[in-house]
Amino acid sequence: MQSPDPVQQNTDEALNSQIEAHAKLRVGGISIQSEDEISRRIEALDQEWDIERWLQFNASALAFSGLLLGLVRHKKYFLIPGVVLPFLFNHAVNGWCPPIAVLRRLGIRTRREIDHEKYALKALRGDFAGIPPFSETGASMTASQAWQAARP
């Protein structure tokens, strides 16, 4: 069993459910597409930034901007990295910081959520041929079955 994701644990359950529902709908919608379309969606998921990357990007951009502005404009701008970096530290230690609430409402997902969708699509595409079929009749996997099979 996987350990709980700290970001998901610190996100409102209704929002977690909404993010999962959207992903499940995407899997259902693409399940009737061609294998090429499924492959393109998997490639897009490989490129999707997860919440950790967004946090790192935003924190470093804000901290660097505050540092530059502090050096060039006025020392009060040194407060920006002084606020941003403790948030990033708190996220590293506790799995939460204030920007997470905003990013989650914008639909930014965790790596685990992105991978769940990706592996469901891979199952639909037939990538796991060495694994016995989900149904005993040997029928092709449905989007719902693929979603459940990919569940962490």
List keywords for this structure.
152 residues, mainly alpha, 8 helices, 0% strand
What does this structure look like?
Helices cover 68% and strands 0% of the residues. The protein is mainly α. It has one domain (6-149). α2 runs parallel beside α7 (111-125) and α7 (111-125) packs across α8. It starts with 5 loop residues before the first helix and ends with a helix.
What is the strand and helix layout of this fold?
Layout: H1 6-9, H2 13-30, H3 35-47, H4 51-72, H5 79-94, H6 98-105, H7 111-125, H8 143-149
Helix pairs in contact: 2-7, 3-7, 4-5, 7-8
Can you summarize this structure?
68% of the residues lie in helices and 0% in strands. It contains eight helices and no strands. This is DUF2892 domain-containing protein.
Mean pLDDT: 89
The fraction of residues in strands falls at under 5%
Give the terminus-to-terminus CA distance. 8 Å
> Structural class per helix/strand content?
mainly alpha
Shape: elongated
